[in-house]
Specification:
mainly alpha, two-stranded antiparallel ribbon, 15 helices
Length: 398
């Protein structure tokens, strides 16, 4: 198949837009930490993108999309981008590679939620390389590279399991290993710069159009559908979270933008398989569900600092299941539960369950190993001073 210049231009633009989501995560998270850690949170997103770039072009892409080995991982046939050229089907193979690279980058940035304000930079770098290689790459292969999940018929259009379940439940595992921030539950740790978080949320909403519609890998009707339902689900999630939190106080802007992200997360696996009315339901349920999970996390005293588990993990789980409920053959070629296909729903549940277990367990083991060898956490004094100064020698107030 010859290259299509229109599709190529479309995916080039989508790739650039998705890249903006990684610093968007940094801004989103940076606004929710204390002033002494804002630079650290934003910097970790940039560092995550740099780590993933080198890892991906050397081994990561091959592990995710190389020839299948036992349904679990790709071979190293494409190590160093060997055989990844400028030709391809519709778009250049090289472009497909970098489009997938930006997905991996934003996933590692999301993971930083579980260690905010207390991880050593050196430990994060080592963790980032290992986590991307041992968690993200296998999950990407399962869903999109010919692994067992795709062979089984699991549906994940743009990364419900690969991106959101992996980072959300990975963040939960990290939080359990690294422990609570000093003073957690005793002193106020509320968001100190909501404006920054709103700007980050805007970048995420913007980039998500490319994240989802670009996953069609062509400028076609399926991409248009993904674009439309992405926006609908985000709006629905924003409204339901805002209304749910309003019932307990005032309708915070932080809750509104968090609900939008929850809606975006939930529609990610489904956007190539469901229509607009289903998107309203998917996003609306995501807003309420993720808000309730945040409250549950707070009640249990768990310091998964910036709620990647509540929003990305649980939102991703709901999105994977919702895909099996609302998928319609008129859009994606596969029917879900409400159209009589119980089998597809069961496949989605199995896929999500395995992804949760794998991401949590492997992340937990990696965190334990790093903690025992080089230490995950900064010293008490460094944490008190703040990671901006102790890890970067910089300050917001300088």
């Amino acid at each position: 198949m010859a290259l299509d210049t229109g599709d190529t231009a479309f995916i080039l633009i989508c790739t650039a837009m998705v890249m903006l989501m990684t610093p968007g995560v940094g801004l989103f998270y940076g606004g929710m930490v204390r002033n002494k850690n804002v630079i650290s949170m934003i910097a970790m997103s940039f560092i995550a993108f740099a780590i993933v770039t080198i890892q991906w072009v050397t081994a990561g892409y091959s592990l995710a999309f190389g020839p299948d080995i036992s349904g679990f991982i790709g071979s190293l046939e494409h190590f160093g981008l060997n055989g990844v050229g400028l030709d391809g089907e519709g778009i250049p193979d090289m472009l497909f590679m970098v489009f997938q690279l930006v997905f991996a980058g934003v996933t590692l940035a999301i993971l930083t939620s579980g260690v905010a304000e207390r991880i050593k930079l050196s430990s994060f770098i080592v963790l980032g390389v290992l986590w991307t290689t041992l968690v993200y790459d296998p999950l990407a292969h399962w869903a999109w590279g010919g692994g067992w999940a795709s062979q089984l018929g699991a549906l994940d259009f743009a990364g419900g399991t690969v991106v959101h379940i992996s980072s959300g439940f990975g963040a939960l595992a990290l939080a359990l290993v690294i422990g609570k921030r000093s003073g957690f539950g005793k002193f106020s740790m509320e968001a100190e710069n909501v404006t920054l978080t709103l700007v980050g949320g805007a970048l995420l909403w913007f980039g998500w159009f490319a994240f989802n519609s670009g996953s069609a890998l062509a400028a076609n009707g399926l991409a248009a559908n993904a674009f439309v339902v992405t926006n609908i689900s985000a709006a629905s999630g924003a409204l339901t979270w805002m209304l749910a939190s309003w019932a307990k106080g005032k309708p915070s802007s932080l809750g509104m933008v968090s609900g939008a992200v929850a809606g975006l997360v939930a529609i990610t696996p489904a956007c190539g398989f469901v229509g607009p009315m289903a998107a309203i339901v998917i996003g609306g349920i995501a807003g309420v569900l993720c808000y309730r999970m945040l409250l549950f996390r707070v009640k249990k005293g768990l310091d998964e600092s910036l709620d990647a588990w509540a929003i990305h993990g649980m939102g991703g789980l709901w999105g994977a299941l919702a895909t099996g409920i609302f998928a319609t053959a008129s859009i994606g070629g596969v029917n879900g539960l409400i159209y009589g296909n119980v089998h597809q729903f069961l496949i989605q549940a199995l896929d999500a369950g395995v992804a949760i277990s794998y991401a949590f367990v492997v992340t937990y083991i990696l965190a334990k190993v790093i903690d025992k060898t080089m230490g995950l956490r900064v010293t008490e004094t460094e944490e008190y001073v703040g990671l901006d100064i102790s890890q970067h020698g910089e300050s917001m107030n300088a």
